[in-house]
What does this fold into?
Amino acid sequence: MSMAGNLLKVGGLHKVGGLRKVARLGRRRPRVDLSHPARSPLGSAVVNCVTYRDGIRQPGGRDLVEAVELVRKAREGFVWLGLHEPTEREFAGIAELFDLHPLAVEDAIDAHQRPKVERYGDTLFAVFKTVCYVDHAELTPTSEVVDTGEIMVFVGRDFVITVRHGRHGSLGPVREGLEATSEQLAKGPAAVLHAIADHVVDDYLACTDAMQADIDQVETDVFTETGARADPGRIYQLKRELLELKRAVVPLSRPVQVLATEPLRVVDPEIQAYFRDVSDHLLRATEQIAAFDELLNSILQAHLAQVTVAQNEDMRKITAWAAVIAVPTMVCGVYGMNFDYMPELHWRLGYPGVLVLTAVACLVLYRGFRRSGWL
It folds into this structure.
């Protein structure tokens, strides 16, 4: 029977004997390797289920109930269960096995939560917003720049449950990094929580660094000679994407501060020093986002000012040409009134003289406007 099938049976198991029964069910068929970096080969929500003891990954692909039974019986080590977008049915057995609070379970299933840290008895529940920079050949008013997801983490004395939502944010590199430093992993589930928080914040910094190139490109385009004709939609798009990044990063400051300073049962004081380092990195990301927001506001204002200046220049040119054209219009209007007694009306050179006078007046006006910069 698959791990996903076993998890559905955990809900009615409250004793060790029941755990052994499900463990025997799991032995009837060959176990499936759940170490796949993305999803279980079974197509279920289970990504990985691994037992650690003294910072060392224990061999074998045990079922979840069997792994929990061994860890609790030995009173050392912990189980790390990774899930990806589980359904309520898939998560029900897990919640029963680890005695998870219903409110936290609801948040983990529904997603779209604000970054936070909550305590439910001896269990800590943390929500992190993950971000990913979306590569694009050219920034357009409809380009997606930032893609977001979520990671929920349940931390107890002998378990870590990670629930991931979204197309990115795989914790495979985090697991590999921790397994490479067994002394850090030996500090328990809190070390996993720190590694996840550090990984998420590092992604924030990588995303802000990548967005710097887009902002620089927009700034360069705006301050060129043809900057007034630049598309303001790209600036608004960057501001919208920056707002999405801001919603993921800024609210995390308080939860990380709680993990770094407040006494928590499942977080060792030694681990809290590492969370203070995460808080410093998060502060840097927050400051970069604030600086980008101000810079985009300045770029937008500069662009609007350039548009206004360009419009004023166009109006001056239109006004100057209107003044030049007004001279022949006035002369033609006067001589088109068909009066008998008008100056030089019956003079043989009257017609060419009026044309020459009109042309000279237009030329004088044109040169005057050119000198003043209106044309």
Summary: Residues 269-335 form the longest helix (67 residues).
